[in-house]
Amino acid sequence: MCGNEALAEAAIIAGCDAYFGYPITPQNEITAYMSRRMAEEGRVFVQSESELAAINMVFGASATGKRAMTSSSSPGISLMQEGISYLAGAELPAVVVNVMRGGPGLGNIAPSQADYFQATRGGGHGDYRTIVFGPSTVQEVADCMQLAFDLADQYRMTAVVLADGFLGQMMEPVVLEKKPGRKLPPKDWALTGAKARPQNIVRSLWLPEGSLEELNHKLQAKYDRVQADEVVCEQYDTEDADVVVVAYGVAARIARSAVNKARHEGIRAGLIRPITLWPFPTEQISMAADELRIFLTVEMSNGQMVEDVKLAVNGKAPVLFHGRPGGGVPTVEEILERIRQLSIPRRVRTA
Amino acid sequence: MGNIDIAWCPGCGNFAILKALKAALAELEIEPGRLVLVSGIGQAAKIPHYLRANVFNGLHGRGLPAATAIKAANPSLTVIAESGDGDMYGEGGNHLVHTIRRNPDITNIVHDNMVYGLTKGQASPTSRLGFKTPVQVAGVLLEPFNPLAVAIALNAGFVARAFSGDAEQTKEIIKRAVLHKGYALVDILQPCVSFNKLNTYQWFKENCYYLEEAHDASDRNEAFKRSTEEGKLPLGVFYLDPGRKSFEESTVAYREDKRPLYERDVDMERLGSLIEKFKGAF
Ligand SMILES: Cc1ncc(C[n+]2csc(CCOP(=O)(O)OP(=O)(O)O)c2C)c(N)n1
Ligand code: SF4
């Protein structure tokens, strides 16, 4: 099963009631898979006329209390940003999958991580956040999908799963099974018919003086809870590491190989791999920076997550960057060479 | 242009459209330097790259707003907006409606293969009922979009349909469309040999025919009737109203001064008085 299909099946297992999507490469397998499987399950599938329609269909379906998702690739995700902002304002859950490709503009269809800023900063207008996953194996993509639906419902937020063409097309063994879900609050806000209760209103317009500020404070309190409770991050060989590589997604797979090779050469290298990109593992990285070490952020972009790493390190240690933009993919050898260079001062020091 | 690698499948209807377009432009003696080909994204939308002309290859579905603005900024250019049915009628459907209302003097050529070609075979807005694809597994359930009927309903000044299998007529229709003052729609039926196994060359041959010589293209009701005919698809110019004012003609910028914006000097006197007006405002 390829990553795109595993992700789609995971969404079905997670109880996705409705899928809306518009064709775009490299994620067409998701739409094709969903069209077949959602019909088999008697659930809703729509090929929309555009991404704007798709995200607004998600908005509508979500308002009724059903689990709704869409998937697209970078240009299509850009078009959805207005809808995602409104979802945040209306505090509705949604799951959005972005199988990223190179940009800006039409760019190309090669794997890329250039939508990190867009995803982790909210992306659309206004003061809001989305929960963002950056899985790095097909299994993890599938696992993130289930967690994404749960967290979206729990916090009434949009959860974004960032993949890329590599992960989407990659064939890997994967176990697809229903994970024990979370205990979720009832959806008493949903538009289910107002019989025997006051009407529910879905909106993101707050005109009375001070009401929008109040909403934003409430949203922020929620985002603070997510930041405190929901960070997922892997630390690999970091305990004694002189050089700590920080990478996510496909870049982290390559970085891990480089770290292994470095260890082989006797260089103490490690890897911190954020799985949630927002909330970002700020604490974990900050703690790692208390020891004397150097950080190397590796991304398939010109440097986006590196800003979060710098904020987390907060001047306690040097943070360097190695990246390949525009669909370029860093090689193990490239990363290894950077690790070798960075490890020299410490070796000299301890000699 | 021999050194350009054309990225279409062998046998694709797009080749014939390219040939017809080139011939039409050559016969009309449109100077390449004064021609702008605007497109979105898709197989059809690659066409501007295969001609010697100015190329604006923009966003998926958004060719028409860009084309409108190019023409508005420089009415001396010949502007052709050209893309596929998914691009123009799906993603860009809203722009189609409002561009027709606005009536810029541009030609809108749509390669209508009744499928999304570039994304490998999903149903497009013009896909026929029952058309099966990897996404529309049970066949298309939606009524196909009827671009001609929509354009006529919106009173577009030139509405035609062609078939790429007839290069000569396609060329003639394109010529008339380019000469038309105001928005002109040419929907060109085009077989996609890779992803549309329903609407093949043979299918189009069997399911298309030309409007009779006697068809009165100035009769809007008749044109609408023909565009909504059940069964076989008529080809030719359905509707023609040469009398409508184009957007550029009615826009204030060109009411008194016909020169394109870039040829005009800044009116220093007016600029000065504007600056005066705002002085102290901050
Ligand atoms: C915003 C956005 N959404 C989706 C796509 C993916 N995409 C590229 S071309 C295309 C449609 C192709 O179909 P059509 O316009 O009919 O042209 P054809 O390839 O058949 O000539 C789509 C959906 C894109 N490039 N940008
Ligand atoms: S996919 Fe279809 S439309 Fe595209 S080039 Fe091939 S035959 Fe032509």
Structure overview:
Chain A is α/β, with parallel strands linked by helices. Chain A folds into two domains: 3-194 and 201-229, Thiamin diphosphate (ThDP)-binding fold, Pyr/PP domains (Rossmann fold); 233-350, Rossmann fold (3-Layer(aba) Sandwich). Chain A is built from twelve helices and twelve strands. Chain A has helices at residues 3-13, 28-40, 51-63, 74-90, 116-120, 138-155, 165-169, 211-229, 249-264, 282-288, 305-313, 332-350; strands spanning 18-21, 44-47, 68-72, 94-100, 131-133, 158-164, 233-236, 243-246, 269-274, 276-278, 294-299, 319-323. In chain A, the strands form two sheets. In chain A, strands 2-1-3-4-6-5-10 form a seven-stranded mixed sheet, with helices on both faces. In chain A, helix 6 (138-155) links the parallel strand 5 and strand 6. In chain A, helix 1 runs parallel beside helix 2. Chain A is globular. Chain B is α/β, with parallel strands linked by helices. Chain B has one domain (14-278): Rossmann fold (3-Layer(aba) Sandwich), CATH 3.40.50.970. Helix content of chain B is 33%, strand content 16%. Chain B has ten helices and eight strands. Chain B has an eight-stranded mixed sheet, with helices on both faces. In chain B, helix 8 links the parallel strand 7 (208-210) and strand 8 (233-240). In chain B, helix 1 (14-27) crosses helix 6 (167-179). Chain B is globular and about 70 Å long. The N and C termini of chain B lie far apart (56 Å). The A-B interface holds A 22-25, 28, 31-32, 35-36, 39, 47, 49-50, 75, 105-106 and B 41, 59-61, 86, 90-91, 93, 116, 118-120, 122-123, 125, 134-138. The structure holds thiamine diphosphate (TPP) and iron/sulfur cluster. Thiamine diphosphate sits between chains B (41-44, 60, 83-87, 111, 113, 115-119, 124) and A (22-24, 51, 75-76, 79, 106). Iron/sulfur cluster (SF4) binds next to loops of chain B.
